Amino acid sequence: MSISVGDKIPSGKLQVMGENGPTPVSTDELFSGKKVVLFAVPGAFTPGCSMTHLPGYVVNADKILASGVDTIACLSVNDAFVMDAWGKAQNAEHIMMLADGNGDFTKALDLELDGRGFGMGLRSQRYAMIVENGTITTLNVEPGAGVDVSAAETIMEAL
């Protein structure tokens, strides 16, 4: 059963690109005592993710942060090198680009997507959530293709 509103974010490790390479980030550290908007994409550099999903958060980052959000984070089942390059290519300087390289966090949320039919292996479903002090207060999982319920504009309405 996938995670739902009211649940605590599971403890785990993700990665970001640091000064000396990939750097672990604990989910406890990321979410404890903070209000975080986390959105996940099936893959960095893929069309919907690069043309619509991430750009919506890039354009609206200042408004989202001004509404009391401490961190905006983008997660994908990609490595930290790919997430860093994608963030730079998309001018995502106000967004934490989180790598879930092995998909462990995605599996813990039970929000994995079987992308083998597209040659992509295990990926994350497209979703967005608001997490307050480690507890999910809003969770919008896309029911199919496209970017609608997980779009920045939709999440902004929930803030």
UniProtKB/TrEMBL annotation:
InterPro entries: PRX5-like, Redoxin, Thioredoxin-like_sf, Thioredoxin_domain
EC supergroup of this enzyme: oxidoreductase
Catalytic activity: a hydroperoxide + 2 glutathione = an alcohol + glutathione disulfide + H2O
TM helices/strands, residue ranges: none
Catalytic residues (positions): 49
SUPFAM superfamilies: Thioredoxin-like
GO CC annotation, single: cytoplasm
Residues annotated as domain Thioredoxin: 3-159
Gene3D superfamilies on file: Glutaredoxin (3.40.30.10)
Family: Belongs to the peroxiredoxin family. Prx5 subfamily.
Function: Thiol-specific peroxidase that catalyzes the reduction of hydrogen peroxide and organic hydroperoxides to water and alcohols, respectively. Plays a role in cell protection against oxidative stress by detoxifying peroxides.
The name this protein goes by in its record: Glutathione-dependent peroxiredoxin
Lineage: Bacteria, Pseudomonadati, Pseudomonadota, Gammaproteobacteria, Cellvibrionales
